[in-house]
Write a structure and sequence with these properties.
Layout lengths: L9 H22 L6 H13 L3 E4 L6 H12 L3 E5 L6 H5 E7 L5 E7 L6 E5 L6 H13 L1 E4 L2 E4 L5 E6 L12 H4 L4 E4 L5 H12 L12 H12 L5 H12 L10 H6 E3 L3 H17 L7 H12 L4 E2 L1 H5 L4 H11 L5
Helix pairs in contact: 2-11, 9-11, 9-12, 11-12, 12-14
Length: 337
């Protein structure tokens, strides 16, 4: 695509239209299985097309697993589910070398890949895994590769980790460290369905038939459309907006509002600004724009920043939430300030 100040080329318009059509096809197919949760589905698709990972937080039974499995079916991607437990070892997810007998009667070590070697990974209750196992998944997320012994296996794209965690049950869990949370492009809050959605959920899940999903896109198309997303230009004033939004979450900066200075220990890192721009590019394409606008950044700011804001002891004691902090930043920092 062209620079932000240039009119979009014919190819840019065609690419944007193809992106919106593909998005709608996938969204409609996933909607056959999952009722409601529009913002969550939008966030998951945003992370997928932006080439990032997503953290889903919500109590059990709200459809998190169903969402990720349905997405895999709609995209015809290899889907893998990992149910994390405290006794799980890194080899349980990465794979291990197995001693096998050859046709000649000799033995050899053969690498058997684990469930992380797939395109779409559901990391269920990731905070139940020990830090050692969490770090093994972190390498796969960040480097797109795994290391087992002396072997390095590069993971095929598209590769996307969608991890879930229960915000209520904390017994026997290992909270994700700040460095690992920062690797997730977005953090989405999965809430209870709206009242009107309950009836449709019951009809689909307690009747004689269950919806069957068909592939409406392929991994190769996702990779091509990721290039379309990356090509969306960002005007300089929008880039500045992203920087100021991130700096406003850091308690030691002039942009930080009083709430941040009082209750925040650590604010968002440069990865927060990257997440704002990448998710903003997806939002711009969906809105029919050919360049990112400040309103796109503000639309995605809660999902891009909430897991990158670490509250201090006083903030926890007074019940302040990361969403309140991000909301205050958006209110106190006028567009283009």
């Amino acid at each position: 695509m062209n620079h932000a100040s240039d009119p979009p080329s014919k190819k840019a318009r065609q690419d944007a239209e193809r992106f919106r059509e593909t998005w709608q096809r996938i969204r409609a197919e996933v909607g056959k299985a999952l009722v409601g949760q529009d913002q969550v589905v939008e966030g998951v698709l945003t992370a997928l097309f932006a080439g990032g990972h997503v953290l889903l937080e919500g109590v059990p039974g709200l459809g998190k697993t169903l969402l990720v499995r349905s997405l895999g079916e709609a995209l015809d991607l290899e889907f893998s589910r990992i149910q994390f437990t405290p006794d799980m070892m890194p080899s349980d997810i990465l794979g291990t070398h197995v001693l096998t007998e050859t046709k000649k009667g000799t033995t050899s070590l053969v690498f058997e890949p684990g469930p992380v070697v797939a395109s779409l990974i559901l990391a269920d209750e990731i905070n139940r895994a020990t830090p050692k196992t969490q770090s093994a998944l972190l390498e796969a997320m960040q480097e797109r590769q795994i290391t087992v012994g002396n072997e390095i296996l590069v993971l095929e794209e598209p590769f996307c980790v969608m991890a879930t965690q229960n915000p209520v049950e904390q017994e026997g869990t290992y909270p994700l460290p700040e460095a690992q949370l920062d690797r997730f492009l977005l953090k989405l809050i999965v809430d209870y369905p709206a009242e009107e959605d309950y009836r449709e959920i019951l009809r689909r899940t307690t009747g004689r038939t269950t919806p069957t999903l068909e592939p409406v896109s392929r991994g190769q198309e996702i990779l091509e459309l990721r290039s379309v997303v990356r090509a969306v230009p960002v005007p300089e004033h929008v880039e500045t907006e992203a920087i100021r939004l991130v700096r406003a979450t850091q308690p030691g900066t002039p942009e930080a509002p009083p709430l941040v200075r009082q209750f925040v220990a650590l604010g968002a890192s440069p990865r927060g600004a990257q997440a704002l721009l990448l998710a903003g590019k997806v939002r711009a394409l969906l809105e029919g724009r050919y360049a990112v606008a400040a309103e796109d950044l503000r639309r995605v700011a809660p999902a891009a920043l909430r897991h990158r804001v670490l509250l201090n002891y006083q903030g926890h004691a007074e019940g302040v939430t990361a969403d309140q902090v991000v909301g205050e930043v958006l209110r106190r920092l006028p567009v283009g300030a």
